[in-house]
Amino acid sequence: MKFEPVTIKDIAAKLNLSTSTVSRALRGSWEISNKTKKLVLEYAEKINYRPNPIALSLKERRSHSIGIVVPEIANHFFSQAINGIESIAYNRGYHVSISQSHESTEREMVNIQHMASRSIDGLLVSISAETENLKHLQDLHEKGLPIVFFDRIAPEINTYKVVADNYKGAYDATVHLINEGYKNIAHITSSPHLFITQKRLEGYKKALEDHQIPYDPKLVEYCNYGGMVVDEVELAIKNLFKNKKKPDAIIGGGDRITSVIFLLLKNQKKGGLKIGYIGFSNSDLTDMFSPSLSVVRQPAFEMGVAATELLIKLIESKRPITEFETIVLDTQLIEKESSKKRIE
Amino acid sequence: MKFEPVTIKDIAAKLNLSTSTVSRALRGSWEISNKTKKLVLEYAEKINYRPNPIALSLKERRSHSIGIVVPEIANHFFSQAINGIESIAYNRGYHVSISQSHESTEREMVNIQHMASRSIDGLLVSISAETENLKHLQDLHEKGLPIVFFDRIAPEINTYKVVADNYKGAYDATVHLINEGYKNIAHITSSPHLFITQKRLEGYKKALEDHQIPYDPKLVEYCNYGGMVVDEVELAIKNLFKNKKKPDAIIGGGDRITSVIFLLLKNQKKGGLKIGYIGFSNSDLTDMFSPSLSVVRQPAFEMGVAATELLIKLIESKRPITEFETIVLDTQLIEKESSKKRIE
DNA sequence: TTGTACGCGTTATCAT
DNA sequence: ATGATAACGCGTACAA
Description:
2 copies of one chain form a homodimer.
Chain A: H1 8-15, H2 19-26, H3 34-46, H4 53-60, E1 65-70, H5 76-91, E2 95-100, H6 105-116, E3 122-125, H7 135-142, E4 147-150, E5 161-164, H8 166-179, E6 185-189, H9 195-210, E7 220-222, H10 230-242, E8 249-252, H11 255-268, E9 276-280, E10 294-297, H12 300-316, E11 326-329, E12 332-334
Parallel strand pairs in A: 1-2, 1-3, 3-4, 4-5, 5-11, 6-7, 6-8, 8-9, 9-10
Antiparallel strand pairs in A: 10-12
Helix pairs in contact in A: 1-2, 2-3, 5-12, 8-9, 10-11
Chain B binds a DNA duplex through residues 7-9, 17-21, 23-24, 27, 31-33, 36, 51-52, 54-61, 118.
């Protein structure tokens, strides 16, 4: 048996009416007799008629659905952001289509291309760590596809953006570690061409500077695949400990990197973490680590909400919008055990 | 500026051809002159023509996309399963549309209804903990919509199903705890009307029976919202400790419940976990807990793969399929510290 | 080899 | 108050 939903035509045939009459009845038009309207409505209800959204999309030239492109959904930051996105989209009558780049530029391009081929009205994007060249997005944007970036934004594309205050997040984390008495604070972060990476680095540097600690580039390591590849994180840690000045504390960037670093540090030394540690993470499981993990938390849900509101504004706007803002939401420093000064 | 992709019509007009000729050229038909074909292909390439998938869907009466309905993507079991689903769907030319029920029957129904309204060719479903009545799915299935269940299956609907061996998983976990010397093993699990819950309970009971330990219903607590509501888990634990025979070990069911129990147990008693604990979890973070968590791991990725292969088989089958199998994949017991016998 | 006409499901417009 | 027709983008059976 094939899946053959009823159409307006079926109803029309059954009731000896024209499709237009049925359509009008269904849409509650008043220029129609109450009798016919009732007849149609009752029959439609009975056979459980549902309008075909594909036909509607073709006609209206919009799909009432928005696409999300994120690196990874198995990541609490992104899954929380998606929950925020959904919460708004649903209420506004939009369906949401999620896709993952797995931090690969190629997958990202394919996904975006697929979505952009007119099955979506707009795009919410957080670019992959691997992506350097944004031509594919730039093109779509110029052709008029509404795009809003969140978290992993593309500075060179002129549209709405929503980010956490990564500068402040990193600044706070660094100051916190300094206050706890750490001297050689390292930073293991994501790909250097990501805007968030740069902002975090700036915050980190500024905090050092404000406390008269010289900045040492050797204490900063980058993970080009955002921690998706364990080896790159392992190498980063190894490099840090090769330095003459061994780090006594580390700041980790991003959910994934943060937990991988933790795992590696723990495996490295028996008897628990020996150095101070704090990471950017939205996982709700870090409290259960041992030592419990101090984190910089980003307002993921709220970022999703804000981005979606902007996107829908863009989609539904009658006239072209040319003035764009970037919304910056506050981060939150949560102090637990891992960053406390410990006796050596 | 509006987003107005080029159509076959635009190409035809530009090249002074009919739309059918252009269509044929694009589809590589051989009943066409090489000259025209080349001309069209080159121009199409130049202006970056993409066929409109909505129009195609309307015509072919299929969308080449499949819908996923899961309780929650912020859950490693499901996000891993989704990765498995994507890996297959992608290669077979299907787009994937994800939606979450958040363990609510109502959300689930809305999502399924939305997807089923012909924007998808088939459905992969893992039902919510709250859902008891499956009429909405039953109806769609009877109308011929291809559906495959994975993990949270509906036994009464006759179609393909993919599950982990929850019976064995629970059996193994229970035996392991017994072997470690625990006597009063409790089980905090999901909603009692979920099939997986029942299977796990059976495995748990059988293990007790095989070791001459009487089954005590007071040692089993259910969480109807699958751990989404912390209070229900808190209550479950409270109830267990109200018993005369206080539990000396607990088996947790499901990613979410497992971590919430852990958190609550840890907060409850200062100085670490006092009782034996093991849970069903696919999180990659449980190793970092303290004590590190013993878990029953489900082959989430493989389940996603298997379910998708079956669904596509169902979708693409010429004649109706009436014989359905249920694929059962093995679980894995990973012994860490939390389940080791500890001195009291 | 190329063009014309139709249909997929729906609604807007223009008749009746 | 209701019906007929065109249009959205595409592919194809049929006509030329």
